[in-house]
Specification:
The protein is an alpha/beta fold and 98 residues long. It has a domain at 28-90. Helix content is 30%, strand content 31%. The strands form 2 sheets. Strands 1-2-3 form a 3-stranded antiparallel β-sheet, with no helix packed on it. Helix 1 links the parallel strand 4 (30-31) and strand 5. The relative contact order is 0.18.
Amino acid sequence: MYKILKTDGRAKRAEFTTVHGTVQTPVFMNVGTVAAIKGAVATTDLQEIGTQIELSNTYHLHVRPGDKLIKELGGLHKFMNWNKPILTDSGGFQVFSL
């Protein structure tokens, strides 16, 4: 569900709800291209700083570690040890540029 909370001109403050939680927008998304944030940032660190959502890249996850392993480990949330929303991009850029 997407709900606009406030507008000011063309700017919006909103929230969207998924089965893994609600995200307030605008939002900063940490990028975990291959399901991990660079620099040895732990899930507990992300929770402490109030991270609402993580971004991963489907193409890179498909290449390594692979769909099969992620599925065997219980899905992307369990693989990442992350119980909040995850946004994945399609990896379309990489498909055509690598």
